[in-house]
Amino acid sequence: MERRNRPSPAYGPVRLDRIAEPLLDPVVARAGFSSTQVIAAWPEIVGPELAARSRPEKLRWPRRQAEGEEATAEGATLVVRAEGFEALEIQHMSSNIAARINAIFGWRAVTRVSIRQGPVESRSGTAAANPGTLPSALPDAENAAADERLATVEDHDLRSALARLGARVSAATDAD
């Protein structure tokens, strides 16, 4: 009887990244990333505080050269979504961000950083529990009054932006 060489199943604990990487690769490939490395290393690339308010969305590669056209050495453009003034900070850090990502890949993969300003989902997957209400950082009475004033704003995006702005202004004045 001939015995076939079959891989034996792994017993015991298995690192989660070894299970998740093959499952996530097709998803991140659609966004232009070759792997989850940039997404997973984002807090180390930009720092934990900035990483909480921004995220890499996709790598936009230059179009392929047709036959007879001169090849360019241009790398990809990293598209980053950032909230508020974090967009300005990312713009300021763009050359450092590109250099850190290129160090991960080991070659000059990213040559530009493009920023899209807008709300960023938290690590738990939601932008805000209820975008029409202010965070619980406000006292209940102030939160109720703010919700009442915001209820008259018909545009959902505007109401959400005003709620975030009010929460940040209130947090900034409380910190002073």
TrEMBL record:
InterPro entries in alphabetical order: DciA-like, DUF1159
Superkingdom per UniProt: Bacteria
Disordered, as annotated region: 119-139
Name of the protein: DciA family protein
Natural source organism: Microbaculum marinum
